[in-house]
Structure prediction request, 148 residues.
Amino acid sequence: MKPSAFLLPATLLFLVGCPAVDTRELNFTRKKPDRADVVGVWTPNKETLQAIRTRGHYPQAEHEIVLRADGTFSIRNMPDWWTNGFGASGRTLSTFDGRWELKEGKDVWTIWEISLQTTDLWTSVHLYRQKPHIHSSLALVTPMMPRP
Prediction:
């Protein structure tokens, strides 16, 4: 077999089987957003609510993250699959209160995240897009959008 005859299929197989970049990462927020653009009430979109009910079998509830201008936050009725590290549903909803801040993160390039800290939880949430409609991404609860 000629090397070129082998190289093309092998390269295609590698690119398809091992994607180097998750295409969603191309939309991460790269310029520091104004705090005012992320302060507010964030709620899951329709598709996420459907996944919470059908894949996670969680009880019906109002899910929200409230980011306040004073740097505090509240999370209400967050599915446990977000915090257990495995994305497995235990069908339990949790509530957290703590502090938040915008943090510069590194991926292939600079990205911006929201750092959430409580006495029991420390995590970062990726931001997607730039103004005027920034979205956030939570594992298995994506995307969340600011409530109008």
